[in-house]
């Protein structure tokens, strides 16, 4: 592993980002957030991007939160700037036009849980631990947890988690819908490979359109959102992917996207 804070590996447009501060359990300090922002400059400009996977280095932790040692001496203005930068970066990650998946390999606390929430979905190792323990440090979540967590798991469970600060295991995270799947840590790698294969076999523009329809539709009333879906569905018929995908089905062969 290099001395970078974000290791980037590209496998045919499926880009895997690994946060590499294992000595601090991959805690998010300003330098990690700035480097993620720079990586996003590149990812946003790529037409060949298929998906982004994000994980933490080592076997113990995905991300154990925002960096407490760095935050400790901050003034309210500095805290606002720190959270503001992280929120902008997580928003950029969330709004990438391709699926963004968190591979949660251990502790997923505070800012780490907020990072996972900014991803489209998360899969976790069975030893992963989740939580928003900020209240135990005398603060509230600052990287979007009070807003994205209720949208993912509902307000009652979100208020439970952000006010008690209790930690939950992977089984409970699965039960409340915080993660999509749980598996032994050794299988996360195989999952990443399988996902890469699956996404690479689909029409890339269709995958982008499907994500866009879900994301943009959630902010609209149902009728407007359904109209958006119709517009995006019709738009698929203007490109080559639809011709290739449907011809391949009729001709009983694999599509070549
Ligand atoms: N920030 C900075 N350093 C951290 C860190 C964090 N969030 N989490 C862990 N570390 C560091 C520890 O200080 C320790 O460093 P040293 O070896 O130099 O002492 C190293 O990582 C290993 O950690 P531990 O020795 O504590 O490991 P452990 O196995 O005993 O405990 C843990 C693991 C339960 C995750 C514990 O480290 C822990 O509770 N970490 C903090 C979790 C937390 O409160 N996160 C929320 C942060 S606030 C936040 O995120 C605000 C926000 O929303 C923006």
From TrEMBL:
Entry's Gene Ontology molecular function annotations: hydro-lyase activity
Regions crossing the membrane: none
Keyword Lyase part of the UniProt annotation: yes
Claim: Iron is one of the keywords in the record: no
Keyword terms, alphabetized: Lyase
GO biological process: fatty acid beta-oxidation
Family: Belongs to the enoyl-CoA hydratase/isomerase family.
Name of the protein: Enoyl-CoA hydratase
Provenance organism: Halomonas korlensis
Lineage, highest ranks first: Bacteria, Pseudomonadati, Pseudomonadota, Gammaproteobacteria, Oceanospirillales
């Amino acid at each position: 592993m290099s001395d970078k804070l974000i290791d980037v590996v590209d496998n045919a447009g499926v880009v895997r980002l690994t946060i590499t501060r294992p000595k601090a359990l991959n805690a998010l300090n300003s330098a990690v957030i700035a480097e993620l922002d720079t990586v996003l400059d590149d990812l946003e400009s790529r037409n060949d991007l298929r998906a982004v996977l994000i994980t933490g280095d080592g076997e113990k932790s995905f991300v154990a939160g925002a960096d407490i040692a760095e935050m400790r001496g901050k003034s309210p203005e500095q805290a606002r700037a720190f959270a503001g930068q992280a929120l902008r970066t997580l928003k950029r990650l969330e709004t990438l036009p391709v699926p963004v998946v968190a591979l949660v390999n251990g502790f997923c606390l505070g800012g780490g849980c907020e990072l996972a929430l900014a991803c489209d979905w998360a899969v976790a190792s069975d030893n992963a631990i989740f939580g928003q323990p900020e209240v135990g440090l005398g603060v509230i979540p600052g990287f979007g947890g009070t807003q994205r967590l209720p949208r993912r798991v509902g307000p009652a469970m979100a208020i439970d988690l952000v006010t008690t600060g209790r930690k939950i295991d992977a089984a409970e995270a699965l039960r409340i819908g915080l993660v999509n799947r749980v598996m032994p840590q050794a299988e996360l790698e195989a999952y990443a490979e399988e996902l890469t294969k699956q996404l690479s076999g689909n029409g890339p523009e269709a995958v982008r359109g499907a994500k866009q329809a879900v994301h943009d539709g959630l902010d609209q009333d149902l009728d407007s959102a359904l109209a958006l879906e119709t517009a995006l569905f019709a738009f698929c018929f203007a490109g080559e992917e639809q011709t290739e995908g449907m011809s391949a089905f009729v001709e009983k062969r694999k599509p070549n996207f």
